[in-house]
Amino acid sequence: MNERIGTSQIKNATPAWDRPVAPPALSANRTEQDIALWWELIDRVMATAGANGYSKTEVAKRMGMPEGTFSQWFSGKYAGRLDSTNRTVEQWLLAVEEQAGLAATIPTSPGFIKTRIATEITETLAWAQMTADMVMVTLAAGNGKTATSRHYCSTRPHAYLVTISPHTKTVHGMLLELAAVLEVHEHNPAKLTRKIGEKLGRIGGGSLLIIDEAQNLADEAINQLRHFVDVYQCGVALVGNNEVYTRFVKKSDGPSYDQLKSRLGKRLKRDKPRLEDLQAFIAAWGVVDPDCVKLLTGIGMKGGALRQIDKTLKLASLVAMGAQEPLAKKHIEAAWKNRDVEDMA
Fold first, then answer.
1. CA nearest 232: which of 132, 103, 124?
2. What are the residue ranges spanned by the domains of the chain?
3. CA-CA distance, 196 to 184, in Å (whole number)?
4. Which one is the CATH code of 116-270: 3.90.79.10, 3.40.50.300, 3.40.50.2000, 2.40.50.140?
5. pLDDT (tens digit, 9 = 90+) per residue, 194-220?
6. What is the per-residue pLDDT across 268-284, written as a single tens digit (0 to 9) for each?
7. Cβ 47 vs Cβ 79: under 8 Å
8. Per-residue DSSP letters for 291-322?
9. What number of other Cβ atoms are within 10 A of residue 268's Cβ?
10. Which pTM does this prediction carry?
C-alpha cells in the first residue's frame, strides 16, 4: 500500500511535470536526508499526477498547500523548512495511495447480463429505432433500465443515451443535453432544435434517442420529443419510472395529450423483478451457496432489485475479505444490516 514509486513509472507525466534539474541547496533548515526524501517525493508526486491527470494547481489544492508554496517546493527553490513541507506532501501521497489500495479491493460488478427483462428492453428499443416510433419503458428501480440502455448504445449505430435531471427538465435544458451527446454545435437557441433534428434526420431515419430518467421531463419537453419523431423520423424511447406514463393517461388535457398518446407505439412495463433475472444476476456474481442465493433473492425482491443485490454483495465481499473467510450467508447478513436501508424480513 505504501510502496515507493520509482522514476521508471513517470514516463507518461505531462510536459508541465518535467522533473527538476537541481535539488534544494543544503542549509541550516535542511539536511541531506531532507533532500533525499524530496527527490523521492518528487517522483511520487509526478507519478500520481500523471496517473490521475492532475495539474500542479490541482495537486496543491488537493493537499491543502498554497499554489505558490507548492510550486517553489517542486522546483527546489522553496526557502522555508523543507522537512515540514516534505511531511505535508508525503501525508497527501500516503492518503492517495491508501485510497487507491482500498479501491482496488472493492469487488467489480458483473458486466452486462442478458436477463429476460434486458432482452425485452432491447427489443423495445430496437422497435423504436427500426420504425422511427416513440416507445416507453417503465420499470421499477434497479431492474437494469440504464445498464441495458447503455449496452444498446454501445452495440448499435446511431443510438444515443441522454440522462435528464431536475436541472435539465425544460425544453431548453433537454436540448442542450441532446446537443452535447449528438455533438451539435449551435449557440443560437432559436436554431438549436432544427440543428438537432437535422443531425438526426441525416442519419436516414435510423436514429434513436433514449431519454433516461424521463420522469423528470416537463410536459413541453416530452412534446418536443414527439416533434422530433414526427418531423425528423427518428425513434425516441422514454425510459424511467411509472410517473412518465401518467402524462399519457390524463383525461382532459386537450389536443397536445391526444397527440402524445396516439404517438406512443409501444410500452414495456414491469413493477417487480422476475425471479429468473435475480438468479441470473446472483450467478454472475459467482454465488452458488443455496442459503446465500435464497437470502440475496429476498433482498432483490425488495425495492431496488438488482442494485440492492449488487451493493450488498460488494460490502459483503469486503467483510469476508477482512475476516479472511470465503463469502458466506453471515457476511451478506452483516452487509445488509450495515447498509441499514430496510429490514431483513
1. 132
2. 7-105, 116-270, 275-339
3. 6
4. 3.40.50.300
5. 999 999 887 655 899 999 999 999 989
6. 998 889 999 999 999 99
7. no
8. HHHHHHHHHHTSTTHHHHHHHHHHHHHHHHHH
9. 19
10. 0.69
